[in-house]
Specification:
GO terms for molecular function: ATP binding; protein serine/threonine kinase activity. This protein is of the alpha+beta class and 659 residues long. It contains 18 helices and 24 strands. The N and C termini lie far apart (74 Å).
Length: 659
């Protein structure tokens, strides 16, 4: 009889399975909510009732929508290639029922069902916006096998052959050389030296591109390797793709598959194929991973107590070894705190800061799109290594955004500072920044007057919160179109607080030796003399307002900026000259009023500029009389020779470009 292993040897496996249970317990993934009484739930139910038969008549893939916005429901359904008609119908009906039961009031949901007893795998997803043709990576769901590969096996050899099988399967799945509707699909049975045969399946939804399919599957493979390498199989699914491998055949997907022979052992003769897979207990075919995990329920309580003790012990031990930027340093007096992310988690989320995930480049770092392990999409700003200025921006942004909460400010979710890496993690906004819309001829046509007004009003409210309504008084100092992010509903969010300045509540102005910002958006008194106040931000807001109305960059006017050009047209009684041609049919009086507000904001005399409180009142009222503006600063830049008399000023600004 085998000797029972000691508790501490058994403990890590138990704990791993406990946390695995937490990861896979909810097979149906739900996001967002809709209000009771809305027609969204009824629309979803009616749409779901048609999917199981529609997917059959459309070759295994079907997408449709039902209802009117904002209660319109979009659904996408897919069965694996080679499906049996009745099996596909049963699978889809089962999943739609699970979604309605498990997500009764949730707006977005998805599930890849892969029950071996159904002999088919199917996907059902529902959203309140169309995802057709778009790569959707999050959320991700993983089903790892509860069994581990025997430690006596040659894992280097296994890893080499497993990677080769992964690459072969992924290339075949993304190749799409078939006329089938289910074009992105591959199932491979591969012989392994000293191991049972490996069965691997990959599939993507056919609405995405081949490149996106390959990327999606690559993310699934990376996710599995990072989290559960060493297990005897597993499945990772995302809304756009699924990856599964095991040591036994599943779904009936490998009946007519030609077995791939094992490659020769490095520096040795090829070994004869093993027949171990044929002697594998057939009962394994009915394994459902989440069910087996329940076996460890009895020792869970004891194991967790020991695990909590170990966490506390190592947390205390590692605290002294961290870099000098600690969580407590960024906690405010009210006890608020910011989540510290593990660098390994950030690397997984961004695929190693992959260039494919790059969203943009800033003055102090690069921004990437990332997907956390729970499927949440985030924006990750990786600050330039070894940059003292970047380090200052990092500390400043974390300390300020910890204490700011407003719908028109970007939300900082957390940070990471390990070694020489400094990373900021923000909420992800899908529509990028304002400059991508107003300075692009095609995208600008999408900005109706109503949308532009909503953007202007939202920016004004965000600034009012910074200047007057928050518990702090903050001057942003670098307001420009590229620092205004737009969410899915085109709601603006002020971003990039790295150069922001905190004022005392009774402080109205200050002088600085560090000029930070972007030429063209900086107020003249700030650019030339380092004098800053809330009126500095008001000036930048005025420039942006005129850019939004005109669709032109501040530096697009030869020899002068947008403010003096608009002022001259105002004096001539022709302010409509600057109006974007896409707005010609829009209410002229409303647009002229906003031009007037913009000119008030860019007046050369800072004392004459309005506060953001006045601006928001004017924007929200049709009856209040708006004052007449005075002249703005006429020189595009104040005397450049002044740089010689202010040599002690540390300039940190960027030039406008015509990207």
């Amino acid at each position: 009889m085998r000797k029972r292993p000691p508790l501490m040897i058994f403990l890590p496996s138990c704990l791993l399975l406990v946390f695995q249970t937490l990861n896979v317990a909810n097979a149906v993934t739900c996001v967002g909510s809709f209000f009771n009484g809305s027609s969204y739930g009824e629309n979803r139910h009616n749409l779901f009732s048609t999917l199981s038969h529609k997917v059959i008549t459309n070759g295994g893939f079907y997408n449709a929508s039902l209802g009117e916005s904002p209660n319109r429901v979009y659904a996408l359904v897919l069965c694996t290639r080679g499906y049996e008609r009745e099996a596909c119908i049963r699978c889809v009906e089962k999943v739609t029922k699970e979604i309605e039961t498990g997500c009764p009031d949730r707006m977005d949901s998805f599930k890849w069902d892969s029950d071996d007893e159904d002999k088919v795998s199917c996907l059902v997803s529902s959203t309140n916006h169309s995802t057709f043709g778009n790569l959707v990576l999050g959320p991700a769901v993983i089903y790892p096998s509860p069994l581990s590969i025997e430690p006596t096996k040659d894992m280097n050899l296994f890893s080499q052959q497993w990677e080769a099988t992964v690459n072969r399967t992924r290339e075949a799945a993304a190749d799409a050389k078939t006329s089938s509707v289910l074009k992105y699909y591959s199932a491979v049975e591969a012989e392994f030296t000293e191991f049972p045969n490996v069965y691997m399946l990959m599939q993507c939804t056919p609405d995405i591109t081949s490149r996106d399919c390959k990327r999606c599957l690559g993310n699934c493979v990376t996710y599995f390797k990072k989290q559960f390498w060493g297990r005897q199989g597993g499945e990772v699914s995302r809304p756009s793709c699924v990856f599964r491998w095991d040591l036994y055949s599943f779904h009936g997907a490998f009946v007519n598959i030609t077995r791939v022979p094992a490659p020769p052992r490095p520096h040795a003769q090829a070994q004869a194929p093993t027949n171990e897979s044929n002697s594998r207990d057939k009962k394994g075919r009915s394994i459902r991973y989440s069910g087996n995990i329940a076996i460890i329920a009895v020792p869970t309580f004891i194991n967790l107590l020991v695990f909590i003790y170990l966490i506390k012990f190592y947390a205390r031990k590692s605290k002294s070894n961290r870099t000098n930027v600690g969580t407590a340093e960024y906690s405010d007096s009210d006890g608020q705190f910011m989540l510290r992310f593990d660098l390994g988690m950030i690397i997984i989320a961004t695929d190693g800061f992959s260039s494919e995930n790059k969203l943009g480049q800033g003055g102090f770092g690069t921004v990437y799109k990332g997907t956390l392990l729970n499927g949440k999409e985030v924006a990750v700003k990786r600050l330039t290594r070894g940059s003292g200025q970047g380090d200052m921006e990092f500390k400043n942004e974390v300390s300020l955004l910890t204490r700011l909460q407003h719908r028109n400010l970007v939300k900082l979710l957390g940070f990471c500072n390990e070694g020489d890496e400094e990373v900021l993690v923000y909420e992800f906004v899908p529509n990028s920044s304002l400059d991508h819309f107003i300075f692009d001829e095609d995208k600008r046509s999408l900005l109706t007057w109503e949308v532009r007004f909503k953007i202007i009003e939202g920016i004004a409210r965000g600034l009012l919160y910074l200047h007057e309504d928050s518990q702090l008084k903050i001057i942003h100092r670098d307001l420009k179109a590229s620092n205004i992010l737009l969410d899915a509903e085109m709601i603006p969010k002020v971003a990039d607080f790295g150069t922001a300045r905190l004022f005392n509540t009774d402080e109205t102005r200050a002088e600085t030796r560090r000029i930070a910002g972007t030429r063209g958006y900086m107020a003249p008194e700030y650019l030339n003399h380092g004098q800053m106040s809330v009126k500095s931000d008001v000036y930048s807001f005025g420039v942006m307002l005129l850019e939004i109305i005109s669709g032109e960059r501040n530096n697009s006017f030869e020899g002068e900026g947008i403010a003096p050009f608009t002022w001259k047209r105002w004096l001539e009684g022709k302010p409509e000259i600057i109006i974007d041609h896409f707005l010609i049919e829009c209410p002229r009086n409303e647009i002229t009023k906003l031009i007037q507000i913009g000119l008030l904001c860019v007046q050369e005399n800072a004392a004459k500029r309005p506060t953001m409180s006045s601006v928001t009142v004017w924007l929200g009222s049709d009856t209040i009389t708006v004052p007449l503006p005075k002249a703005p600063a006429f020189a595009r830049h104040q005397s450049q020779s002044e740089n010689g008399t202010t040599s002690s000023v540390s300039e940190v600004f960027t030039e406008l470009s015509s990207r």
